[in-house]
Structures are given as structure tokens and as C-alpha cells.
Design a protein that fits this description.
This protein has 415 residues and is mainly alpha-helical. 65% of the residues lie in helices and 3% in strands. It has a domain at 15-172 and 183-277. Helix 2 (29-55) runs parallel beside helix 7 (197-221).
Amino acid sequence: MKNHKTQYLLLILGFIALPFLVDAIPMLGPTWVRILGFAMLYVLLALGLNIVIGYAGLLDMGYIGFYAIGAYLYALLASPHLNMAGLTGGVLDWPLWVIIPLAAVAAAICGVLIGAPVLKLRGDYLAIVTLGFGEIIRIFMNNLDQPVNLTNGPQGISNIAPLHMDFGAWSHAPGQGAAPVLSLQESWSLFGLNVSPVISYYLFFLFIVILCIVLSKRLEVSRIGRAWMALREDEVAAEAMGLNKRNLKLLAFAMGATFGGVSGVLFSSYQGFVSPESFTLMESIMVLAMVVLGGMGSIRGVVLGALILSVMPELFRDLVNWIQPWVMDNVTFVSRDILRNVLDASTLRMLVFGFALILVMRFRPEGLWPSDRRRAELHDADPEPAPVPAALSTAVHAPASEASFEYPAKEADKA
């Protein structure tokens, strides 16, 4: 146990030091630190979806909708948009310690609302309904600019305030807001090291991810977690054992949605801009692929899958940008338009995602880093039957001719 604690501590220290090392490399710099920040957001999303799919076995294809709810909630409460639309008397500037719990509660309520009508659905039917929910949220945000401009439609909401801690007024006249007590948009110093805003965001995201990992682990080993897993394996048997199937499913939807709402708040403040195009079906598939690739129900596997699939596209983009000029100059027997389309980073990303998932399903159906229980279910051989004692074997398999049986005489035979 002590050895595991030391390993976890060293791993955390490594993740803390990572942005400083990346920022010090000239060819990487702040751009890759920002990419690492987005990777932490994907880890948070994957942890939330793992509760719904990995623990409870509910195939949620519209999980990105909860992400959108948290993002738009922060955008409305920490930007001048509602004031410019004439819906408020001043610029809203709600602090971090209020918006994050509010977004978590709002996403959890939406999770219960979407979970209640689909309690009796399973498998593909559940996936279709939840997929529709995610698309409805996106279309809803895309059209809420008429007759009241609430979300600014497809143009999105900009000028979103960075994450900050403030104990002053939550609304002020334009241009008259007080300076926040603490803001992640300001640089500061740590042991002589300059901590830029992108590093500050990364460290804060890492802190939230660690809290969510601890919470996920506690849920996994709790009575609720074991009940979710029983429900995942066999709903009928779990219900026969006295488990409340309805409440357990609603709780799984709510807990998973909470993670999505919090990550949406962090994304909105980090990006400074939100629009419906940030929450497409492709994002839901991306998060689902992270959970499947890493290993459903495995916290460490989900984290690994999220890190791989969030960083790999950027690696491909840099690789393609480096290879493309050489190929365009030296390969003359193929049309330049075809080469340009083939060497497109987004196209290659989709091809690699599909190929990687096929390989995982073929050779490691349990994921890259599954839980010990899942690995045992899929790979361990059936136990050998217990050996039969020699005396018992002789008695059982003795020929009928060698056995002597005496039956009581019947009354008719006596007569």
C-alpha cells in the first residue's frame, strides 16, 4: 500500500512539473501547454461518462449535452452578453465558487430529467434516445437567439471572463467592475518559476481531475458502485436481489452529468468563447471512444484513453505539417489535390481513430488498461474441475456386475 501511495505521489508531481518542462521547450511552448489543459478537460469528461457506461452499463451517446449546459451557464453568468441583449441591468460577473456548484446541480437535474423517461430502455435503444438528447441541446442553443437573444445563436457568446475568485458585487455597470481577488488570467511566481495563465489553468484543471478521480474511486468501492455493477451485469438478477433499479439509474445519470457540467464551466472560461459547434455529435463519440479505448469501468484506463485521444490529433497535425511539403514536392505521379486531401490532419485523425478502435476490439476487447476484474473475466481460463478421490472414483465407476445389491423380498414372491 505504501508503495502505491509513493507511485501516485510521484505521478502527481510529474503531471505538475509537465507544463513547466513543455513551456521551456522552444518548439512546444505555450501552445502545447494549452493542449495539455484541454487534455485535462477530456479526462474529466471521460471520468463522468465512465460512471454512466463503465459502472452502470448505460450507453449514453448524448453526454456532450451536459458539457454544453455547464459551458453556456458560465458564459451567461460571467459575460456581458445578457446586458448587451437588454435582459439584465448590469454586466453579470458571478464568481467561481458560485458558478461551479450551480453548474453541477443544473447538469445533475438535467441528467435526472433525461434519465427518467428512458429507465426501461437498454442497449441500442437507450443510445438512440440519449443521442437525440445531445442533438436537441445543441439545436436548442443554436436557435435561442429569437425572439429573445439568450444564447446568441450560431454566433456564440464571446468576452467570457476567466476563472476568478471575487467577493464583491455579482453585477456591475459596463466598465466599472472591481478587480478580482484571484484570477487565473494573471501570471504569478512559484519557487522562482514564472507561472503563466495557461499553466495556471492547467494546474487548476489537474486539481479538479485529481478530486474527481478520488470521488470516482470512492464510488467504485462503495455500496452504490457495487450496486451499479450488479445492475450492469444483470438487471433482472439485481432487481431480484432487492436493488432499486430506477433510483440507481437516475443516480448514475445525475453523477455522470455533474462531471460534464463542471467540465463545461472550465471549458467556457478557458476558451473565452462558446458556440453550438463546440458540442457536436463528434465530441460525444470522441469521449465515448476514450472510455472504450482505455477500458470501461477502469479509472486508470479511462485517464489513459483520454490523454491518448486528446493529444494524438495534435501530434498528427504537427507530423502532417512536417511531411506534407516533402510529399507535395517529390511525389509527382499523384494529383496534388488528392495528396492534399489524403494528407489532411482531420482526415487522418478519423482514420487513425477507426483503425485504433478496430485493433482494440480485436486484440484487447477489455481496453488498453482494464480493471483487474474485467481482465479476469475476458482472459482467464475456466477453472479445472476438482480431482475425484480414488476411493470415490472406484465406487462410482465400478461395473454393475461387480456390485451386489440385496432387495427386500416382495410378499408375492414369498407366497
